[in-house]
Design goal:
Keywords: Metal-binding, Oxidoreductase. GO terms for molecular function: copper ion binding; oxidoreductase activity. One of its GO terms (biological process) is iron ion transport. Belongs to the multicopper oxidase family. It is a single chain. Among the domains are: 168 residues, Immunoglobulin-like (Sandwich), CATH 2.60.40; 36 residues, no CATH class; 181 residues, Sandwich (Immunoglobulin-like). 6% of the residues lie in helices and 32% in strands. The protein has four helices and 36 strands. About 6% of the residues have low confidence.
Length: 635
């Protein structure tokens, strides 16, 4: 309702209704035309018909909003009021919606984190999220309990600035709703089933497929051939066009054409005002891409025969970087400009998975189609293969530098990017008030029902408290959470609500250290704000928290204090990432790995920013929850 050209000082109230429930994909009476034959585009609209969820083309149980995967797209302007009524139609599980990328300044109780900022919305009840869109850029919304997000409760959220304030707007001609893509790793059956079995058996889950804006099929791999839907499901199509038609019109009506400036100098009979300007180059389009994965499966994005100009990530702009491909990890978003300067044809937009999505038995990839408006409506001529998706040239955000082969690439690490988003930038050049060291490791515990591996933070597994720390903060007792002062006995399983207390307004530096070797990078996402990524590196040889701490204390880590603003950073395997931010948003904010299975197993911690009296209070009748036991008068 609020998708428009944004104007300064003209906010709107944007109202949405989300009904969350359990559904089934490829229902026979609703998806009859949601299929295609090899080589043809197919009817994508049929896969979005009321009651039809494509979901990779296999019949399976899903979680969805309004019978849609992805759910409703939210596109608003900076400063708009967003009102979303969420009604829970699940029969037996609660739900919350997290507005991934928004900072919720003044409304931390609308962040959508269970038992930290609100109680879960119980079955057969509803809850209204009401907040100001305070953070510009490409974001998303998704469920934040269990595997609901992984099974379909997710969608796009875009917050635009007025055109005059939109950074890099001079570099593109169009910023269209239809050029956003939300890409999700996707299993052929319920994620809860796949990952719960994996968790209890200790087996590694391999990737199965990707869906782009809900479309695309799955390869059978080890399954029977009839399970293969890769060539029988429609793919998403993104349409672009050149400007050459304008030039032709101009030539027909002009007696002289200046081919240097591409201006029509002498209109015939001086009647043609329409051909004052006619560029020869293609239209320039801003694309927005969002990604998440349930297992370690970063993806590489490239576009056949086209280069990319990468301009922003996680809602903040940086100095543009010409590139051939972009790597994305869970929770990350990137914006790039594509110029439609090729021959009228159809081209592959390629995504190839790495990590658990690449092994001898499975090589996961998915494609969308870049369709030039004057070309035939058909798939590109070349067969889509995993090998063709291996892009050479410049890679932005290379993930898994120690594990993956980048021998044919130039690399631009996130910490090498230069922030230009002055409005959102923070002053991080002063004396640091608090330094936090966070160590990642996978641990096994033979004494536990689930042996592991457990992805842990400082040898701790995060467990949720029994009530929201933010909204019922005066009920908190010290035994409800743990800090670094609480010692975990070596070799014992330590689970607690892991918390760091941060003074409001302080300059904070967090040093993430991944002790893994040869694995994928953990994407860590911060709720309630952004940070500057100031350093990333891989360490050859031995690595430990102590080694990296000493390196940092001895000024052995080179830091880019003009580094980009992000809310999700990939920490290099067998390496470190250093971030800085000013803790100016009071509340309880979750900071966790955005790989769904890792978050489910407790790979995260909480930043408590400010004292209780500095945190905004929720409405007086805000929902409450917690443990209960009978009082003595009932004994």
């Amino acid at each position: 309702p609020c998708y428009r050209n944004c104007q300064e000082g003209q906010p709107m109230t944007c109202v949405y209704n989300f009904t969350v429930g359990e559904y089934v994909t490829m229902r026979e009476n609703f998806c009859t035309s949601c299929t295609t034959v090899k080589g043809l585009l197919g009817d994508a609209a049929a896969c979005r018909a009321p009651g039809c969820i494509a979901g990779g083309g296999r019949v399976r149980i899903v979680s969805a909003v309004n019978h849609q995967i992805p759910g409703p797209k939210i596109e608003v302007c900076l400063g708009d009021r967003v009102v979303v009524q969420v009604t829970n139609h699940f029969s037996s599980e609660g739900v919350v919606i997290h507005w991934h990328g928004t900072h919720q300044r003044g409304t931390p109780y609308m962040d959508g984190t269970p038992y930290l900022t609100q109680c879960p919305i119980l079955p057969y009840t509803s809850f209204v999220y009401d907040f100001i869109a305070d953070t510009p850029g490409t974001h998303m919304w998704h469920a934040h309990i269990g595997f609901e997000e992984a099974d379909g409760v997710f969608g796009t959220m875009i917050v635009r600035r007025p055109a005059a304030k939109e950074l890099h707007s001079s570099l593109y001609d169009e910023d269209l709703s239809e050029h956003s893509m939300i890409v999700w790793h996707w299993f052929g059956k319920s994620t809860r089933e796949v990952l719960t079995v994996s968790k209890y058996t200790g087996t590694r889950s391999s990737g199965e497929g990707l869906i782009i804006n809900g479309l695309g099929g799955l390869e059978a791999f080890e399954l029977p051939p009839e399970e293969d839907t890769f060539d029988t499901m429609p793919r998403e199509v993104f349409t672009v066009e050149q400007r050459k038609t304008h030039l032709i019109q101009c030539q027909e009506r002009c007696s002289l054409l200046n081919r240097v400036k591409f201006l029509c100098l002498y209109p015939i009979n001086n009647t043609s005002k329409s051909c004052v300007i006619a560029h020869l180059q293609g239209q320039r389009y801003r694309f927005r891409v969002i990604y998440n994965n349930q297992i370690p499966c970063p993806v590489q994005l490239s576009v056949q025969n086209h280069s990319l100009l990468v301009i922003a990530s996680d809602g903040a702009s940086f100095t543009p970087v010409p590139a051939n491909s972009i790597m994305l990890n869970g929770g990350e978003r990137y914006d790039f400009i594509l110029e439609a300067n090729q021959t009228d044809n159809n081209y592959w937009i390629r995504f190839r998975g790495l990590g658990n999505c690449e092994n001898d038995a499975r090589k996961v990839h998915q494609e969308a189609v870049l369709h030039y408006a004057d070309a035939d409506e058909a798939l590109p001529e070349a067969e889509p293969t995993y090998e063709d998706a291996v892009a050479t040239g410049m890679v932005v955000n290379p993930i898994g530098a120690i594990a993956y082969n980048y021998s044919g690439n130039e690399l631009t690490y996130v910490a090498e990017l230069e922030n230009v988003d002055v409005e959102q930038a923070q002053n991080i050049s002063g004396d640091v008030n608090q330094i936090i060291y966070i160590e990642f490791r996978n641990s096994m515990y033979v004494s536990e029902d689930i042996v592991g591996p457990w992805p842990q933070v400082n040898s701790r597994t995060f467990s949720y408290p029994s009530f929201p720390l933010l909204t019922q903060r005066h009920e908190i007792t010290q035994d409800m959470y743990c800090t670094d002062e609480d010692v975990c006995v070596d070799g014992s399983f330590c689970a607690c609500s892991y918390l760091y207390d941060i003074e409001l307004g302080s300059l904070v530096e967090i040093v993430f250290i991944d002790l893994g070797r040869g694995g994928g990078d953990h994407p860590f996402h911060m709720h309630g704000g952004q940070f500057h990524v100031v350093a990333q590196n891989v360490i050859d040889g031995d690595i430990s928290k102590q080694i990296v701490r000493e390196l940092n204390e001895q000024n052995g880590i080179s830091k880019n204090l003009g580094g980009p603003l992000k809310d999700t950073v990939s920490v290099p395997s067998s390496g470190y990432a250093v971030i800085r931010f000013v803790a100016d948003n009071p509340g309880f904010w979750f900071f966790h790995c955005h790989i769904t299975s890792h978050a489910d197993m407790g790979m995260g911690f909480v930043l408590k920013v400010g004292d209780f009296d500095e945190m905004p209070y929720p409405p007086y009748d805000f929902p409450r929850c917690g443990n209960w036991e009978p009082g003595t008068e009932n004994d």
